[in-house]
Amino acid sequence: MDAFVHLWTKSKVKKIFTFVFLQLFIIMESLLYTATPTREYTTIMLSLLLTVALLVFVFLLSTDKLKNIKGAYRQIGQLLGGLLGLIALVTTLFSVWNAYTIQPVRLYETYMESFHGKTLYKDIKRAGIFNDKERSFINSQVTIREDNILAVEKRDKSVILFADDNYDLEPLIKKIQERLADK
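-> structure tokens emitted (183 positions)
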């Protein structure tokens, strides 16, 4: 028992225990709301299907399975098929990467957590939905595209943005503003 008391009085053991206890306390903070991203896999599936189809086309051209295409047309077909297959493959890879980088937004009692990291509510200056309209060059009365963006402005002048394409913004902004009102 004396050895334990002797170890406990050393500051390193006390600091480690305090650190572990505080980490457990932070982890135990209750989750208030989770905004899950709306993911659509149509782009991924279409570009993957296009990649496979183009690779099969190039393979059939290079193994002389398509007898109707001869000479220079065969070389042009292989070149264009390979190039378009590469573009479709890169589109597939970037779509998969984008789908997995967009993570759920979790709102806790004292902070919010997203793919931008943890942000304390006391560090947030304001939050709101910004309506971004792209107008026509010819007629400024015509709106080409309209996007809603949730902007969370922090006190250090940085901004966290969440797109309407990825999240349902209305319940998310309501919960964030409730937490900002409570702080």
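The first strand starts at residue 31 and ends at 35.
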